Amino acid sequence: MNNLLQLCQEEVDALHTAGNLTPHTIDQVKSKYLGKQSELSKQYQGMRDLAPDQRKDAGKQLNIVRQGLESIIKEAYILAEQTEINAELAQALDVTAKGRPLPEGSLHPLTHAYNEINKIFTQMGFSVVTGPEVEDAYHNFYALNFPENHPAITMHDTFHLTEEDRLLRTHTSTVQVHAMKKLQAPFRIATPGRVYRCDHDATHSPMFNQVECMVVSENCSFANVKWLLLKFCETYLGKELAYRFRPSFFPFTEPSAELDIKWGDQWMELAGCGMVHPNVLKEAGIDHNKYRGFAFGVGIDRLAMLKYNISDLRVLYENHVEFLKQFNASL
Ligand code: PHE
């Protein structure tokens, strides 16, 4: 009978050596040595045929063997668990294991646009400056020669804040006012930034981006602004453009024009420009008899749409990874 203990132990050892000691294989050994069909079970059944005085001794013997087998099986389970834990630990400590790749991000197309635009203006000798996005009516309108209650003010679809006389700037022209008051003429500045209007469709977003350019000097002209605006757009887009300047109206420039670019078979409105109105220079404390100015404001989102051939501006703000993934650092 003690032979059973030895056989059982040998089977467990063999499984262990073969690296195959698992709860499942131990179950099989258990059922072979302790199950209903086992030798041990038969021996227990055979006790019925023994004389009562022999039965007691035999029962004792069998119980000893059963306990021995049970303890071999119990140890085997513990060993299997330990082996599994060790294997996991060895893996966790495998310094040669391949790392998990991190998903690679990319800059947003508008960030690319900002970077490139700043570079172009800096190379042309402009200072890049910024201004606040929360403004008051004075900087957004009145310092820019909008008459009080002028319909143009309502046409701007302004977001008014609950705090009195606070609004989200509707254009970057507000920075003209800050710059004129702060800088000594002559100067040239470019000011990119976010602007806001209650407007939303495939070519308008309630938040969008503009870059304003302003030059104040003694002898600049309308020819200069036309040349510079077009040169800027062509440099950014990297190609010659089919364009048209349309006479237009802005309270802060006179004369004023808008620049349209041919896009497919359509014209797309891209920028407003003009000579700074003398009232605007005067309001900012600049001698309008000595200095003239010109300015333009271009939609950065629209420039980016043209550059990357995007037909719906909204994709720029929906943050779909599949869309954004296309704009890797090489752009
Ligand atoms: N601020 C104007 C707009 O948002 C654009 C503009 C800028 C026009 C500078 C003339 C001069 O539409």
How would you portray this structure in words?
The chain has 331 residues and is an alpha+beta fold. The chain has two domains: 2-92; 109-324, BirA Bifunctional Protein, domain 2 (2-Layer Sandwich), CATH 3.30.930.10. It has 13 helices and nine strands. The chain has helices at residues 2-17, 23-34, 39-46, 52-92, 109-123, 137-140, 151-155, 174-182, 222-237, 278-283, 300-308, 315-318, 321-324; strands spanning 127-128, 134-135, 167-168, 187-196, 207-217, 243-250, 253-263, 266-276, 292-299. Strands 1-4-5-9-8-7-6 form a seven-stranded mixed sheet, sandwiched between helices. Strand 6 and strand 7 (253-263) form a beta hairpin. Helix 1 (2-17) packs antiparallel against helix 2 and helix 2 (23-34) runs antiparallel to helix 4. The two termini are 81 Å apart. The mean pLDDT is 91. The chain binds phenylalanine. Residues 171, 173, 212, 250, 253, 256, 272-274, 295-297 line the site of phenylalanine.
Summarize the structure.
The chain is an alpha+beta fold and 331 residues long. 45% of the residues lie in helices and 20% in strands. It contains 13 helices and nine strands.
Sequence-ordered SSE layout with sheet pairings:
Elements: H1 2-17, H2 23-34, H3 39-46, H4 52-92, H5 109-123, E1 127-128, E2 134-135, H6 137-140, H7 151-155, E3 167-168, H8 174-182, E4 187-196, E5 207-217, H9 222-237, E6 243-250, E7 253-263, E8 266-276, H10 278-283, E9 292-299, H11 300-308, H12 315-318, H13 321-324
Parallel strand pairs: 1-4
Antiparallel strand pairs: 2-3, 4-5, 5-9, 6-7, 7-8, 8-9
The structure holds phenylalanine.
